[in-house]
Amino acid sequence: MWLAKPVAFDYGGRRRSRARVPRWLVLLLGGALAGVGTVIYVQERVLPPRLSTDASAQLKNAFDQADTERTRLKAELEQTTRKLEATLAEKKAQTTELTNSRSAVERLRDDLAAVVATLPPDPRGGQGSQVEVRAARFASSGGMLAYDVVLTRAGGSNTRPLPGVLQLMVTGASPQKPETTVALKPIALSMGTHEVLRGSLPLPEGFRPQQTTVQVLDKPAGKVLGMRLMLVR
Between the CA of residue 191 and those of 3, 99, 109, 129, what are the distances in Å? Predict the structure, then answer.
C-alpha cells in the first residue's frame, strides 16, 4: 500500500517584510515641495504683487508711448545738433571773413596814409594852421558840386580826434550877379592824423562855380583851423 509522504511545515521561519519607499525618493519629493513652497512664499511675500492682465496692458502701452517719445526726442536732438554745428561753422566762417576784412581795411589805411604822406604840403600849412588842406578837386555838373578833399593834421603826430566842420565857400557867377560867393552846407568831421572827404553838394539854380575856398572850422562859423583856395573844373 502506497503511503503519502508527509509534508513538513516550518513554523519558526520569518515572514517577508512589506515594500518600503526609497529614501532618495522621499528626499527628492521633500526638496521639490520645499522649493515650490519657497517660490510661492517669495512671490506672495517678498516680490511685488503680480500685475493683472489690464495692468500689464497699460504698462505695455505706457512703455510703447515712452519709447515713441524717446525716439522723437532723439531725432529732435540730432536735428538740433546738426543745426548747431552748421551755425557754429557759419559763425567761424564769418569770423574768419571779418578778420580778413579788418586786415584788408588796415592795409588800405596804411596805403592811404602812405599816399597822403606823398602829397604836396599845404602852402598855408606853416602859418599856424592846425589842419592842412593837402589836396582837393572840385567839379560842377547838373547843379551839383562834387568834391574830393584830403586833410591832414599839422605835425601828423596827434591821433586824438579833432572835431570840426568843412565849410566850402564857392565863388562864381549867377543870373543876378556876374560874381558872387555862396556858402554851401557845412560838413561835420572828426579828424585823426588825416581825413579824406568825398561827396557832392547842391548849388544855387543857374550858379556857375569858378573857385572854392576850403575852410576847416572848429564849429560852424567858428575858428578857422585850416584854409586853401582851389579852382573848380
Answer: 167, 25, 14, 14
Residue numbers of the domain that contains 173: 131-231
Dump pLDDT digits (tens) for 97-153: 888 888 887 777 777 677 777 777 777 765 667 899 999 999 999 999 999 999 988
Separation of alpha carbons 192 and 127, rounded Å: 20
What is the C-alpha separation between 228 and 137, in angstroms, rounded?
12
What digits encode the pLDDT tens for the residues 185-216? 999 999 888 889 999 999 999 999 999 999 99
CATH number of the domain where residue 149 is located: 2.60.40.1710
Over its C-alpha atoms, the chain yields an Rg (Å, rounded) of 56
In a domain, 94, yes or no: no
C-alpha pair distances (Å), 55 with each of 59, 66, 85:
6, 16, 44
Q: 3-state class of 122 per DSSP?
A: coil
Question: Is the pLDDT assigned to residue 1 strictly greater than 50?
Answer: no
Residue 110: inside a domain, yes or no? no
**Does 166 reside within a domain?**
yes
For 37-71, the pLDDT digits (tens) are 777 776 666 666 666 787 778 888 888 888 899 99
Q: Cell for 180?
A: 558872387
Convert 215-232 to b/e letters by CB count within 10 Å (16 or more is b).
bbbeeeeeeebbbbebeb
Joined grid coordinates for residue 166: 568843412
Looking at the 3D structure of the chain, how many domains does it have?
A: 1
